[in-house]
Write a structure and sequence with these properties.
Number of strands of chain A: 2
Order of helices and strands of chain B: HHHH
Low-confidence stretches of chain B: none
Strand content of chain A: under 5%
Number of helices of chain B: 4
Largest interface: A-B, 58 and 65 residues
Mean pLDDT of chain A: 83
Largest sheet of chain B: none
Number of domains of chain A: 1
Number of helices of chain A: 23
Radius of gyration of chain A: 22 Å
Order of helices and strands of chain A: HHHHHHHHEEHHHHHHHHHHHHHHH
Low-confidence stretches of chain A: none
Mean pLDDT of chain B: 87
Number of domains of chain B: 2
Number of strands of chain B: 0
Helix content of chain B: 55-70%
Structural class of chain B: mainly alpha
Oligomer: heterodimer
Distance between the termini of chain A: 43 Å
Strand content of chain B: under 5%
Distance between the termini of chain B: 46 Å
């Protein structure tokens, strides 16, 4: 009964005209960046982070969340019609989605992708409503040791799932922690690694780092090769899947939804992992696995549902524990912090309007996305024809302006350009930026909780092992660190390793 | 990309990546020590930095060992079969822009930047490049400065 009352309260907040407008802007921009290759939700969210300052916290966060789940919808359009993933979570949709389009079945592919996404998104929201308050009440009992161990686990899971060698990913995570510690020490107020520069006293901003590593570096990589697009030019008709399509897709949508939701909750996991896992699962369960790769609708329905369910599930650790499970959620945490809010176990009780408003807005956003992605598909197809040689200078200009506006400081533009160049060389040498960014956000929190735990336990390191939740997290993290040393597990890791930064 | 094996060659890119990581780790350890480590009961400002630096050295060491034992692609092979001059040009444009931004201001630095990007990488025809390079930064400047009242750098000439 409480939940229903809270949901009603949430809809009261989400249905305010200003919040509806922000929600629409969010899902529209999300679909746009999902559709356009070369710019993803991370770049778009960091670009728009300063804009959230102009409105209420609800409006800003509703818009940011909309960009994230909106991009999951939009990403599939590019994968199906152009065979280029609009964002990383849609990579797997290219395999069967584009084949379907080539066979003249672009409509059902786009249709099942949108309906599957809608069903998964709705399920994730209902589960979020039911799970988050319960988990938050448990999380109140968490002490600094539990928080520290959970963050360690999150970072290790992400490094485990990152493409390339694990030592490289771990080195990136360590560099992220160090970068996050630049500025005044939160306990002693001593400046660290500031090299006497006043601009570094408050630390390096998240926006220039993310925009540099993901926005500028991505553009640098894209200019290396002329992007060839194989756009399906035929008129897209019959968006509604047939009875047979529904029959074939029902199982993949259901399984993808459940799998995606649980993988989304896991720290370090997320939409990308979920879509790959769902594809692998469907191929394994199929009686005719040879159809996969040649236009099997299950290969579109499962992953697209999984990535949307994961996008919803990823809100749980952020909202209930205050721990962002991936880079996108780290940016959302940034939006909370800009408004002086700290997501965590007390958010739901102390700020119910905000929590339930965001949840309700996500439901409204899902309906908006269904309308945006089905009847208006023609508009997005036209956008795909925008050549990259015109698009990338605009992306560069918008990133420069976005970074400058976030702090009104030219120094941040220099930081972004520097990180863009560093990010490009990192990617060329096989170092992924995702662990660095997540560690950059978690680093100061990890340090704070580690030092608090050591002070409270009077230097007793056993405190991390004696507390059950902390012990389980550390044991799991240790297992993941050891796993790549075993040849059989190493092979499995390589199969699931992902390019989060794409 | 060809995965050439170069176990003890100096152009092994994995080796260089590891060495840079090792140098960074050494610097972080030194910085941590300079900031004071404190004790385990009361960790100081350099405590986490120091131990993170040690971890960095361990991971970088592991990359170096694997580069020496298993080899790795050469630096040149990382840029094989790609238009390596294009990102280099783009980096050059961005560095030039960052040098020019404060003295020239937003408008005088971003219009040439846009024109260079539109013409140098995958050339857009002049009749399209010039209007985009002029209108987009000017439009953005107008929206930010006049509508959102955000002060953009106007440079020594006070333009923008």
């Amino acid at each position: 009964m409480d939940t229903l009352a809270n949901v009603a309260h949430g809809f009261g907040v989400a249905l305010l005209p200003v919040n509806l407008l922000y929600c629409f802007i969010g899902v529209f921009i999300g679909t746009l960046v999902g559709v356009l290759p070369g710019i993803g939700p991370i770049s778009a969210m960091s670009l728009l982070l300063p804009v959230t300052l102009s409105g209420t916290p609800e409006s800003g966060i509703i818009m940011m969340a909309g960009i994230y789940y909106g991009s999951m919808y939009g990403g599939s359009t590019t994968s199906i019609l152009v065979n280029i993933p609009g964002e990383a979570a849609s990579v797997v949709t290219c395999i069967d989605g584009h084949q379907m389009a080539k066979q003249g079945r672009a409509g059902p592919a786009l249709g099942i992708s949108a309906f599957g996404s809608f069903i998964a998104g709705t399920f994730a929201l209902i589960a979020l409503m039911l799970v988050a308050p319960k988990l938050a009440s448990v999380a109140i009992a968490f002490g600094p040791a539990e928080y520290f161990s959970l963050m360690v686990l999150g970072l290790v899971v992400l490094t485990f799932l990152t493409q390339g060698s694990m030592p490289k990913a771990l080195l990136m995570a360590c560099i992220g922690v160090v970068l996050g510690l630049i500025g005044l020490d939160s306990i002693t107020a001593q400046p660290r690694l500031t090299f006497g520069r006043m601009e570094l006293i408050d630390g390096i901003g998240l926006v220039p780092v993310v925009m540099g590593l993901f926005g500028v570096a991505e553009v640098l990589l894209n200019t290396e090769q002329a992007i060839k697009r194989d756009i399906i030019n035929a008129r897209i008709t019959q968006l509604l899947p047939t009875k047979e399509d529904w029959k074939a897709s029902a199982g993949p949508v259901g399984r993808g939804t459940l799998l995606g939701f649980f993988l989304g909750i896991l720290p370090g996991g997320g939409a990308v992992v979920a879509s790959f896992a769902s594809y692998a699962l469907e191929k394994r369960l199929s009686k005719t696995p040879e159809r996969f790769g040649h236009g099997a609708i299950e290969g579109v329905a499962g992953p697209e549902s999984a990535n949307n369910a994961a996008a919803g599930g990823a809100f749980i650790p952020l909202m209930t524990l205050g721990i962002p499970p991936n880079v996108v959620m780290a940016l959302l945490l940034g939006a909370f912090v800009i408004h002086g809010l700290q997501p965590g176990p007390l958010l739901i009780t102390q700020n119910p309007g905000l929590f339930w408003g965001i949840v309700a807005s996500m439901y409204i956003g899902n309906v908006m996305l269904l309308v945006l992605n089905l009847p208006m598909i023609g508009m997005w197809v036209q956008l795909l024809k925008l050549p990259y040689n015109i698009l990338f200078p605009l992306i560069i200009l918008f990133t420069i302006l976005g970074v400058y506006c976030s702090s009104n400081n030219v120094f941040d533009v220099y930081v972004m350009i520097a990180f863009g160049i560093i990010g490009y060389f990192m990617r060329k040498l096989g170092y992924e930026p995702a662990p660095l960014v997540l560690a950059f956000v978690l680093g100061p929190m990890m340090e704070n909780n580690l030092r608090k735990s050591l002070i409270l336990s009077q230097g007793d390191l056993w405190t991390f092992v004696q507390r059950p939740i902390s012990a389980v997290c550390l044991a799991f993290a240790m297992a993941l660190l050891i796993a790549p040393l075993l040849p059989s597990l190493r092979k499995k890791r390589e199969l699931v390793a992902l390019d989060e930064g794409a | 990309m060809t995965n050439q094996t170069n176990k003890l060659r100096l152009n092994n890119s994995e080796l260089w990546g590891g060495l840079i990581g090792l140098a960074l780790g050494g610097f972080v350890i030194w910085s941590g020590m300079k900031l004071k480590l404190g004790t385990i009961n009361d960790p100081g400002s350099g405590y986490v930095l120091f131990y993170t630096g040690i971890l960095m050295c361990v991971f970088a060491g592991s990359i170096i060992v694997s580069a020496l034992t298993e080899g790795g692609p050469t630096l040149a092979s990382r840029w094989e079969n790609v238009r390596w001059s294009k990102p280099l040009l783009l980096i050059g444009c961005l560095v030039a822009f960052s040098v020019a931004l404060e003295p020239l201001g937003f408008l005088l630095s971003s219009i040439p930047l846009m024109l260079l990007l539109l013409r140098l990488i995958d050339p857009v025809r002049w009749t399209l490049a010039i209007p985009i390079a002029v209108l987009v930064p000017t439009g953005m400047w107008w929206v930010l400065k006049r509508l959102l009242l955000i002060q953009l750098p106007s440079g020594l000439f006070g333009i923008g």
